[in-house]
């Protein structure tokens, strides 16, 4: 597979990263009950994520392998997605380690309880369950996790 590299977002990444986001969110239990279209997710990437987030791209073999989008001011990991064929390859861990470096005083995120793989991933990386609530946009259950250094 090759080394995993991290870099900042480039303008020509948008389509490929939106495709990764859509493909990953399409996996069973990952995305909302009714998944937005690929076009809608590309729009959200450009108009919601890019203006509000610091986005780090993971690359492997010259191709985008995943991304993390962080709202640094709010100390929130807004999105972390890995290309479905690369789950378990270390890309997610590499991105999460970068997020910890970007927000060293801690951060929160949420995922869906219907995505046990993500829950195990975050718990193995030292994140704690803070609370369970309802997704503000989609209305389905979510689990809110938090990470603090030394916790």
UniProtKB/TrEMBL annotation:
Residue ranges of every copy of the N-acetyltransferase domain listed in the record: 4-151
Keyword flag Acyltransferase: yes
Keywords: Acyltransferase, Transferase
Pfam families recorded: Acetyltransf_1
Keyword Metal-binding: no
Molecular-function annotations in GO: acyltransferase activity, transferring groups other than amino-acyl groups
EC number: 2.3.1.-
Protein name: Putative acetyltransferase
Lineage, broadest ranks: Bacteria, Pseudomonadati, Pseudomonadota, Alphaproteobacteria, Hyphomicrobiales
């Amino acid at each position: 597979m090759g080394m995993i590299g991290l870099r900042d977002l480039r303008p020509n990444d948008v389509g490929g990263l939106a495709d990764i986001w859509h493909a990953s969110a399409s996996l069973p239990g990952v995305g909302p009950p009714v998944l937005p279209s690929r076009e809608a997710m590309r729009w959200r990437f450009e108009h919601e994520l890019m203006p509000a987030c610091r986005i780090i791209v993971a690359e492997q073999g010259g191709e985008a392998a995943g991304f993390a989008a962080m709202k640094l001011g709010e100390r929130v990991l807004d999105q972390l997605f890995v290309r479905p064929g690369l789950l378990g390859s270390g890309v997610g861990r590499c991105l999460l380690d970068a997020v910890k470096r970007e927000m060293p005083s801690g951060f929160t995120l949420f995922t869906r309880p219907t995505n046990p793989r993500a829950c195990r991933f975050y718990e193995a990386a030292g994140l704690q369950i803070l609370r369970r609530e309802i997704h503000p946009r989609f209305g389905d259950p979510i689990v809110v996790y938090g990470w603090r250094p030394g916790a």
